[in-house]
Each structure stands twice: as structure tokens, then as C-alpha cells.
């Protein structure tokens, strides 16, 4: 079991982008996407990483990319370090299990959020005016209630340290065009519904999630991460009880801790106690093993 925090800086490789959680390197004809052990909450990177978390996230995405190929192609070329370009070979041991070689795309400037349950910022919006991202919802919903049908609620895509902003569908159309907005909406809902169905069979509710898409020429493909505990709310099905917050397999545990200490959700983030880091890590691993039916040595 991986206990130490892994250094994911790779001298000699061309760092293209350092995200909240992932680092992307330009290898010329392709990109190397590395899932680090960094963790963010409320769009702010925490000072302490979660050992092994990058490998967990990477395995989630590899699992889902394969399953969703019947709906949409993705940017994955390979997750096998033995097939990576020669420039990566000296870092093989570090990259193993936490990286993907992917195709280059032009990412869309919106996050494609799908909600099947009313929680988080969606619940806060609903309490104000019974809508989420301009979509009217039924009266009388309780926190964590399942929605009659999943809804597409896009957001902006902000840099690290800035909060993504919920937008309505009309604003998404302004940003990417009507045809593309309708396409990512329909595909996002289809991928979410398929994921929900499979996860339920494994005892997990996927309450909501967010997807990213990119263009290869005119072709739309799924990119970045898919249905991970970083991008989704995962709840234990056997403990689901609407009317309040739910127990989770995701970073809601970390968010709840940050709320409890009354952090203002602005940088710099506070130091995180070791027990919160360990419990967050364990929740991620438990969800991965439950979902895939495998026992990962993270």
C-alpha cells in the first residue's frame, strides 16, 4: 500500500498545464496526463496531498472510459507505461497506474454537470427559488432527494483558486454554440445514466457528476476524468436517507471537515489533520474496489 507522497515533477518533460489535481505534459503528438495526489475542495488545493489518490482516480477513469465507449469515444491512447514514448521511460515506476497517454484535443470551455439528486450547490439554489441553473424543479423536495429525471446543469471552467460558476443552458449555448451544447447535454445525460445503473448494482449511488469534452477537428470526445470521487458524489446505497447530507465515498468528507472549522473557502487552505487525510483516502479506495469488483494495491 502506497504510504508516501509521490513526487510527480518530471524534469525533461514539457509541462503544459498544472491543474488542481492533474498535470499535463506535451509529448509532441500526444499528451501525458498525470493524476497527482493533490486534492482540492471548493476549488482550492489543500496543502496536504492524499497518498495514493492519483492512482485511485486514474483507475476510475480507465474503468469508465472503456465502459462508455459504446456512447462516445474518449482521448485515451494507453495507460500502459511500457507503451509510452522513450522520454517517459525513466519515470515509469512513478507513472505506473497514475497516468494516461492521451490524444490532443481542444477542450470545451464549460463543465458538463449532471445531477440526479438534489445536493450541494444545487440544493442551495433550490432552497432560494426552486430552480437549479434556470431549470424549475418540483416543489417539496428534501435535501438529497432523487430528481424525477437527471438534469444537465453546466458551469464555467475556472482556474485553480477560483470557483466554477453555475450557468444556464442559454449561457452554455453562447459559449460553445447551440449544436454543440445540445450534443454535450445529451451525451452527458446518457453517460451519467449508464454509470448510475452500473454503480447501483455495486451498492453505490452516483448523485451527481461533471464531465469534460474536447474536439479533435469536428469530432467530440470525452476527456480528462470520468465518474471519479473527485468529480462526483458517491453515496452508499444501503445507507441512503433523503432529508439531509449523506454518508459518502467522495471528498464530501473533506468538505464537511472544512465547513466544520468555518474556513472561508478562499486561499490559502488550512492544514488538514492526518486522520481526515487517511479517512478520505480509505473512502476513495473502498469505492474503487466496490465499483470494479477488484482489490487494488494502491
TrEMBL record:
<dbReference type="GO" id="GO:0005737">
    <property type="term" value="C:cytoplasm"/>
</dbReference>
<dbReference type="Pfam" id="PF01259">
    <property type="entry name" value="SAICAR_synt"/>
</dbReference>
<keyword id="KW-0067">ATP-binding</keyword>
<comment type="similarity">
    <text>Belongs to the SAICAR synthetase family.</text>
</comment>
<dbReference type="InterPro" id="IPR018236">
    <property type="entry name" value="SAICAR_synthetase_CS"/>
</dbReference>
<keyword id="KW-0658">Purine biosynthesis</keyword>
<dbReference type="InterPro" id="IPR028923">
    <property type="entry name" value="SAICAR_synt/ADE2_N"/>
</dbReference>
<dbReference type="GO" id="GO:0004639">
    <property type="term" value="F:phosphoribosylaminoimidazolesuccinocarboxamide synthase activity"/>
</dbReference>
<comment type="pathway">
    <text>Purine metabolism; IMP biosynthesis via de novo pathway; 5-amino-1-(5-phospho-D-ribosyl)imidazole-4-carboxamide from 5-amino-1-(5-phospho-D-ribosyl)imidazole-4-carboxylate: step 1/2.</text>
</comment>
<dbReference type="GO" id="GO:0006189">
    <property type="term" value="P:'de novo' IMP biosynthetic process"/>
</dbReference>
<protein>
    <recommendedName>
        <fullName>Phosphoribosylaminoimidazole-succinocarboxamide synthase</fullName>
        <ecNumber>6.3.2.6</ecNumber>
    </recommendedName>
</protein>
<feature type="domain" description="SAICAR synthetase/ADE2 N-terminal">
    <location>
        <begin position="16"/>
        <end position="267"/>
    </location>
</feature>
<dbReference type="InterPro" id="IPR001636">
    <property type="entry name" value="SAICAR_synth"/>
</dbReference>
<keyword id="KW-0547">Nucleotide-binding</keyword>
<keyword id="KW-0436">Ligase</keyword>
<dbReference type="GO" id="GO:0005524">
    <property type="term" value="F:ATP binding"/>
</dbReference>
Amino acid at each position: 500500500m502506497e504510504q508516501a507522497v509521490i513526487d510527480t515533477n518530471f524534469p525533461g518533460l514539457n509541462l503544459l498545464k498544472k491543474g488542481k489535481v492533474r498535470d499535463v505534459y506535451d509529448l509532441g503528438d500526444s499528451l501525458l496526463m498525470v493524476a497527482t495526489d493533490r486534492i482540492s475542495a471548493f476549488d482550492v488545493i489543500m496543502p496536504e496531498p492524499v497518498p495514493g489518490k492519483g492512482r485511485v482516480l486514474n483507475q476510475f477513469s480507465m474503468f469508465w472510459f472503456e465502459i462508455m465507449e459504446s456512447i462516445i469515444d474518449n482521448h485515451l491512447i494507453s495507460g500502459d507505461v511500457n507503451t509510452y514514448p522513450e522520454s517517459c521511460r525513466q519515470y515509469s515506476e512513478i507513472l505506473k497506474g497514475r497516468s494516461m497517454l492521451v490524444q490532443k484535443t481542444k477542450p470545451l470551455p464549460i463543465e458538463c454537470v449532471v445531477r440526479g439528486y438534489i445536493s450541494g450547490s444545487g440544493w442551495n439554489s433550490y432552497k432560494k427559488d426552486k430552480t437549479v441553473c434556470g431549470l424549475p424543479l418540483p416543489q417539496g423536495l428534501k435535501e438529497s432527494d432523487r430528481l424525477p429525471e437527471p438534469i444537465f446543469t453546466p458551469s464555467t471552467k475556472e482556474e485553480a483558486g477560483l470557483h466554477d460558476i453555475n450557468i444556464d443552458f442559454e449561457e452554455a449555448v453562447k459559449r460553445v454554440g447551440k449544436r454543440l451544447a445540445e450534443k454535450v447535454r445529451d451525451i452527458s445525460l446518457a453517460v451519467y445514466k449508464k454509470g448510475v445503473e452500473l454503480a447501483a448494482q455495486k451498492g453505490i449511488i452516483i448523485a451527481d457528476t461533471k464531465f469534460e469534452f474536447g474536439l479533435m477537428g469536428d469530432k467530440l470526445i470525452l476527456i480528462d476524468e470520468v465518474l471519479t470521487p473527485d468529480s462526483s458524489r458517491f453515496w452508499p446505497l444501503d445507507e441512503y436517507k433523503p432529508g439531509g447530507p449523506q454518508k459518502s465515498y467522495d471528498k464530501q468528507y473533506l468538505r464537511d471537515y472544512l465547513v466544520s472549522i468555518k474556513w472561508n473557502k478562499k486561499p490559502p487552505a488550512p492544514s488538514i489533520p492526518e486522520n481526515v487525510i487517511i479517512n478520505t483516502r480509505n473512502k476513495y479506495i473502498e469505492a474503487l474496489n466496490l465499483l470494479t469488483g477488484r482489490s487494488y494495491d494502491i
